[in-house]
Structures are given as structure tokens and as C-alpha cells.
Write a structure and sequence with these properties.
Strand order of the largest sheet: 2-3-1-4
InterPro entries: SCO4226-like (IPR025336)
Structural class: alpha+beta
Shape: globular
CATH topology: Alpha-Beta Plaits
Pfam family, one: SCO4226-like
Protein name: DUF4242 domain-containing protein
Distance between the termini: 33 Å
Number of domains: 1
Oligomer: single chain
Radius of gyration: 14 Å
Order of helices and strands: EHEEHEH
Low-confidence stretches: none
């Protein structure tokens, strides 16, 4: 599998809506397309219009599989970019909300 970054712009009005989509995304990936796509992580961003978007890291057999996953879930894949390599300077910081739980 190859690694991709996917930009999803202004797909959700709030974190509750995003959470519902995340559940569908995980189910579709794990149950319907387990040999084609693998969700690694997502970074949630606040868009200029106030809605939420994401930058997601996925593994997939190709960009078409990533696009098909997004279609089945009902979310955009505004930009799909093949990741050539990874350079980790520091691990991702722990989200404040996650550290409270």
C-alpha cells in the first residue's frame, strides 16, 4: 500500500457531525474495503468559513481506492497527494481534550 495525504475542506459544522462521519469512515474502511484502504490519522482544522475540515493520512492501494472510500462515506476528498517519505522531528503533541479524558 502507498501512503496518501487527503485534504477535506469544510465538510462538518462541528465535532459531533465529524464524529458521526468518523464512525462511518472507520466502518467502511474496516469492513467494506480492508484490503484497499487503511485510515492512519486525521488532523482537524478550522476553516475560514468556520466549518471543520481535515488533513488525513491514509494508506491505500491507489488514489482511486482513496476516492472510492470517500464516496462511500459521503465526504469529500478535495485533494489526494501521494506521500513520498516521512520525516518525524517530534511525535504529534497530545491533544488537550484527549489528555483530560
Amino acid at each position: 500500500m502507498q501512503t496518501f495525504a487527503i485534504r477535506r475542506k469544510s465538510n462538518w459544522k462541528d465535532t459531533a457531525e465529524l464524529s458521526v462521519t468518523a464512525g462511518v469512515s472507520a466502518r467502511v474502511g474496516n469492513e467494506e474495503m480492508p484490503d484497499q484502504v487503511r485510515w492512519i490519522r486525521s488532523y482537524v482544522v478550522r476553516e475560514d468559513d468556520g466549518r471543520l475540515g481535515t488533513v488525513c493520512i491514509y494508506q491505500g492501494e491507489d488514489a482511486d481506492a482513496i476516492q472510492e472510500h470517500a464516496r462511500r462515506v459521503g465526504m469529500s476528498a478535495d485533494e489526494i497527494v501521494l506521500i513520498e517519505d516521512t520525516v518525524v522531528v517530534r511525535e504529534d503533541p497530545v491533544n488537550q481534550m484527549a489528555s483530560v479524558a
